Amino acid sequence: MTEVEIKKVLNGIRAEKASLPTRYLYDNLGGILFEAITELPKYNATRDELDIFREKLDEIAEVLPEKACLIDLGAGSCRKAAHVIPSLQPSRYVAVDLPSDFFVQSVNSLENKFPDLTVNSLSVDFSNGFQVDLVRKLQGNSSNQEPLVYFYPGSTIGNFKPDESMNFLKNLKADGILVGVDLVKPPEVLLAAYNDSLGVTAAFNRNALLHLNRDLGTNFNVELWGHEAIYNDKKSRIEMYLVSLKDQIIESSHGEIAFKKDQTIHTENSYKFTIDSFSEILSQAGFNNLNSFVHSTERYAMFTATKDL
Question: In what order do the strands lie in the sheet with 288-294?
């Protein structure tokens, strides 16, 4: 990291409303912990998404460009890609995620599973926008023959504020998109998914501090921090925080950072949508031919859309 980047992160932690970039949740251990979260009984999003794949993939494939370059944003374990590739039949698959050994191993595993498919990977942070030129370099002379279809499952789009979601999607050079969103549901259902009794989500959240220690040379003690997830009804989002369990001083390369007991660091938002609210975001981003594939419980939905470039 550059000194400018380090200072930016530290200034975020020092702010009156302290916050941490969400990417710090996703290092090697973070990826493994998130996969464990998706298996928790009360975390339904992943299971609902897989149900939609099993029941609706043929319909989904019919409305997306054929023989595409399938760009998997936040690919993680590549498990979801393995479900959709047989039906979508892309010419090329590009896995995109933050660098980690877990990600590299996941891509290698998928490549072995589909030996006839061209598989590429990009270890980049796309939270501030995705650079399509990176894909164009991988495509080479095939760029004119391979439509760009973005695969963005897991409701990760909900980590952005709604206006940020729209701008992110608007700036994608996309011929088509397949994106998953978590739908609005009773607060008690949402909170149960983010405050699991096994403490997996808490470990996932606190692991961000270990990531910080490696990147910034800080000395956070994870045992002195608790996990909190609340539902903000006005903004229709889950908010995750780390909570200081005592008054403490954190050392950093740019001076000490003081935290009072119960002071928080905001680590993640997860917005929840209605069919209409997310359809509006896609429309404002320049997409058309919108289709929604809603789980039978109405807890989760997949959207397809195309864009006239």
Answer: 118-123, 92-97, 69-73, 148-152, 176-182, 300-306, 288-294
